[in-house]
Amino acid sequence: MRKFLNHKIMALSNIRLEVMQTIEQQIDSFIEQYLIPVEQIWQPSDFLPNAQSDNFFESIQQIQEEAKELSYDFWVVLVGDMVTEEALPTYESWLMEVEGVQQGQEEEENGWSKWLRHWTGEENRHGDLLNKYLYLSGRVNMREVEITTQYLINDGFDPGTGRDPYKNFVYTSFQELATHISHKRVGKIAKQKDNKLLGKMCQMIAGDEMRHHVAYRAFVRKIFEIDPSEMMIAFRDMMKHKIMMPAQLIREAGGAVGTSFIDFGNAAQRLGVYTSMDYVQILEKLNKFWEIDKICDLNEQGEKARDYLLKLPTRLTRIAERMHFPEHERLFRWVNPEGMMV
Fold this sequence. Notes:
The chain has one domain (2-274): Ribonucleotide Reductase, subunit A. It is mostly helical. The chain contains 13 helices and no strands. It is globular, with a radius of gyration of 21 Å. Helix content is 66%, strand content 0%. It has helices spanning 2-24, 27-34, 56-67, 72-86, 88-95, 111-137, 142-154, 165-192, 196-226, 228-240, 261-271, 276-289, 300-322.
C-alpha cells in the first residue's frame, strides 16, 4: 500500500512539474504584463523627505504633526502590515522551494526563479517605505518593532502548501488580494484624517499588491486549463485547512510565537481594515474569476472538491456573522499610548 501511495505521489509531482514547465514558456510575457521595469516603478524616496533638502526637518515635522491624528488601533495595524512586508526573506525562500522553480547560475535557472526574484524586488519596496515612514512619524517604538520583525523571520513560515505549485499559487492569489485590501483601507483612513502622504503611500503599495494578485490568479487559471481536477483538489485543500496569514506567528519581545496575532487581527477588525467577511468575499471572487462552476472534464474527486468550494462561502458567512471581537484596544510594546488621539 505504501509503495502504491509513493508511486501516486511521484506521478502527481511529475504532472505538476510538466505543467510548470509548460507555463514557464510564457514567463517573460507575464513579467512584461504584470511587473514594472526597475527604472520606471516608484521607489520609497519618491515619497519620503529628501535628507539633502533645506526643508528636510520641516518635512519631518509635518509628518509627525499629521501622525498625531491617527488612532492607537491604526498604528497597531500599520506596524503589523509593515512587519508582514519586512518578513519578505521568509516568503522568497519558501517560494524558491516550489516544485518547478530552478535556482542556480544563469544557464541553470529557469523562468520561475526569474519571476520570483523580480516579484521579490517589487515587494521589497513596501517594507522599506513603511519602515522609514514609521521611524519618521515618531509614534512607535522602533526597537520593539524591529524585534518583532526579526522574530517573524526567525520563526519561519509554513502556509501548508509544501512544494506543491498548485497550492502555492492558490495561496499567493488569495494573500495578495488580502494585502491589497488591507493597504488600500489603511490608506483611505489616513486620507480621511488629512494625512495625504501616508494615504498615497498605502494606495501605491495596494496597487502593487493588486497587480501581483492578478498575476498569480492568472497562473492558476492556466493550470485549470491544463490539469483541472488536480487544480480543483488543491484549491479545496487550501480552503479546507484555511489560508494562514503571513503574520500568523507574529510576537513581541518576551512573547511566545503567535501571541500577538489575535490582538493585531482584532485591531484590523475594529478599524474595518481586514475583516472575517473579507476572507469570505475573497473566496467568492476567486471562485467567480476561475469560473469553477463551469470547468469541465473533472474526475470524481475534482467534482467533490468543486461542490465543497461552491458551498463554502455560505458556510463561512454564517460563521463570520456569529463572530464577536473585543471592543477595547490591547496595548502593544510597538506603540506608546501617551499622547495618542482616538
